[in-house]
What does this fold into?
Amino acid sequence: MTDRNNDAWLLRLAVQNLAAAPQAQRRYIQLGFMSKTVDNLNRIAADLDPLIEAELITDEQAALAREVRDELNARLADDPDFLRESVAAPREFLFSTELETDAWQHLRLTARRAYSAIAGESSVFVSMMAK
It folds into this structure.
C-alpha cells in the first residue's frame, strides 16, 4: 500500500471514529484509538492535495474532512479534556453518558456527513441520515 493509499485509509478511519456511536467512541478513548484519530486527522488533513491529485478523495470530501478537523480542534481548544481521557480508565466510563453532550453530537453529525461522502454507498450513515 502506498503512503497516499495508507493516508486515505487512515483519513477515512479517523472520520469514521468521530462519526461512531458514543459508546464505541468511549471504548476508542479507553484503548487509545481516539488520540491516534486526532493525530491522524490533523496530520493528513493538513495537506489533502496529494490525495486529491491521486484521485483518492474529491475536493468535496477534502472540504468535509477539513470541516471535521476544524470542528474537533475547536472543541479541543475550548476544552483540553474534550476526549475525557482523564476519567476514561474505569470500566464504568464505557457505560456512562460521557461524550453525549451537544458539542459531541454536533461533531458526530459533522463527521457522519463527511464519512457518508467519503465512504459513499458503503456508509452506514447514508441510510441512517436519509430523509
